User: Which sequence fits this backbone?
C-alpha cells in the first residue's frame, strides 16, 4: 500500500523561490523596443489595443481542482510544505491566486498526511481542500486513474474523520451518486455548507436527478471520469447537461475533451454555468517525462498528454489555467470576458468567496494566447 511506501517524484525541478520574488511573474510585455514595465493604466483596468493584441486587468483565477503542479504532488505523503508553496508560486505565474489542492481517493491515513502538509504550508492561495473520492464508482473507466483499492462506499462517519484531519478545510467533495450511502452524505454536506460535485460516476439518469435534489451543484470534469462507451441516450452526461442546478467544470486542454464537445457542453450549460479547471498534476509546467500522482506513475508525453503507461485513461493534466482560457475561446467561440469569468469570478462565486488579487493580462486573439504579465495583490 502507498502508506508504507511513499513514492517520490521521478523528475522534480525546483526553482529558487524567494518570498516576494515568487509572487509576481518576471515576464513583462515585450514590444519591438524590448521589455516594457507594466503601466498604471493597466492596474486602473484600462484596455489598450495594439495590433489586435489587447491588454487588460482582471480578477485573479481560482482553480477548483489541482492535484499538483511544477513537479510537486499534493497526493504524495512525502511532499513538504515548502514544495506546496513552490507549486503555488508557479501557479501564480499562470494567474492562479486561489486554488483547491485536490486529494484523490486514498486511505484515511494518506489523506490525513497530504491534507496536513497542504495546511502546514500556510499558503494564502489555498482556499480549502477538494476531496475527490473515495466515494466514487469502482468501475473501470468511471474510476479513472483512482486505484480500485482506495475507493470506498460513502459514509458520513468517514467524511467526518477526513474533515477533522483537514481541520475543517474541505470545501468541495466529488462523489458518485450511485455509491451506497451517497445521498445521505450529499444531504449532510449540503447542510454543512460544503459543495458537492458529481464525478467518476456510472449513475443512471434518475440517480443524477436524486443527487441534484439532495444538493449536488457541480459536475466535476464533465465528460471525463466515465466509461468509454455509453448508451447514446439517455445517459448521465445528457442528464447533467440538462440540469440547470449543476455548474460544470471542464478540462479544456485539447486532450480530455475534443473541441466540438467543449463547444457543445458550453452551449448546453451556457457560459455562466461553466468553470475551467486544470486537474493539473505534478507534470504541469514541466518537461515530458515520468511523474507521480499519489501511488501512480504517470507519463507526460510530448503532446502534453498525461497517462499511466499502458492504460487508456488520462491521469490528470499538464494544463495551466491561462491556457485553458485561450482554449475555451478557441474551441467554444465564447468571448474573452466569458472565458475569464469561467476561470475567476464564476468558480469564486461557486465557492462563496471573492477572487483574490488582480492580473495584468495580454490577449492575442489571432493565436488565442493569454499571457499573465503580472499578478498583483
Ligand atoms: Zn477526477
Assistant:
Amino acid at each position: 500500500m502507498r502508506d508504507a511506501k511513499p513514492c517520490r517524484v521521478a523528475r522534480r525541478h525546483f526553482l529558487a523561490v524567494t518570498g516576494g520574488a515568487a509572487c509576481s511573474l518576471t515576464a513583462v510585455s515585450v514590444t519591438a523596443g524590448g521589455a516594457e514595465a507594466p503601466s498604471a493604466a493597466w492596474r486602473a483596468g484600462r484596455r489598450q489595443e495594439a495590433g489586435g493584441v489587447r491588454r487588460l486587468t482582471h480578477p485573479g483565477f481560482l482553480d477548483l481542482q489541482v492535484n499538483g503542479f511544477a513537479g510537486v504532488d499534493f497526493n504524495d505523503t512525502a511532499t513538504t510544505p515548502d514544495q506546496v508553496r513552490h507549486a503555488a508560486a508557479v501557479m501564480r505565474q499562470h494567474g492562479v491566486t486561489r486554488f483547491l489542492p485536490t486529494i484523490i481517493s486514498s486511505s484515511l491515513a494518506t489523506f490525513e498526511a497530504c491534507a496536513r502538509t497542504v495546511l502546514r504550508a500556510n499558503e494564502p492561495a489555498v482556499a480549502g481542500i477538494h476531496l475527490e473520492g473515495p466515494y466514487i464508482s469502482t468501475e473501470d473507466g468511471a474510476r479513472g486513474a483512482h486505484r480500485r483499492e482506495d475507493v470506498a462506499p460513502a459514509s458520513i462517519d468517514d467524511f467526518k474523520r477526513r474533515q477533522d484531519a483537514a481541520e475543517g478545510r474541505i470545501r468541495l467533495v466529488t462523489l458518485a451518486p450511485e455509491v451506497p450511502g451517497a445521498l445521505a452524505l450529499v444531504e449532510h454536506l449540503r447542510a454543512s455548507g460544503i459543495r458537492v460535485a458529481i464525478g467518476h460516476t456510472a449513475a443512471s439518469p434518475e440517480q443524477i436527478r436524486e443527487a441534484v435534489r439532495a444538493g449536488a451543484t457541480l459536475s466535476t470534469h464533465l465528460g471525463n471520469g466515465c466509461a468509454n462507451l455509453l448508451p447514446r441516450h439517455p445517459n448521465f452526461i445528457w442528464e447533467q447537461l440538462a440540469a440547470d442546478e449543476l455548474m460544470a467544470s471542464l478540462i479544456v486542454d485539447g486532450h480530455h475533451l475534443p473541441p466540438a464537445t467543449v463547444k457543445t457542453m458550453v452551449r448546453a450549460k451556457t457560459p455562466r454555468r461553466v468553470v475551467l479547471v486544470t486537474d493539473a498534476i505534478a507534470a504541469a509546467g514541466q518537461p515530458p517525462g515520468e511523474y507521480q500522482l499519489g501511488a501512480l506513475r504517470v507519463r507526460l508525453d510530448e503532446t502534453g498528454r498525461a497517462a499511466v503507461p499502458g492504460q487508456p485513461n488520462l491521469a490528470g493534466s499538464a494544463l495551466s489555467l491561462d491556457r485553458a482560457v485561450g482554449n475555451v475561446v478557441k474551441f467554444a467561440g465564447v468571448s474573452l470576458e466569458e472565458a475569464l469569468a469561467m476561470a475567476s469570478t464564476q468558480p469564486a462565486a461557486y465557492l462563496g468567496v471573492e477572487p483574490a488579487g488582480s492580473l495584468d493580462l495580454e490577449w492575442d486573439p489571432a493565436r488565442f494566447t493569454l499571457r499573465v504579465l503580472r499578478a498583483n495583490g
Remarks:
- The chain has two domains: 25-58+361-377, 61-356.
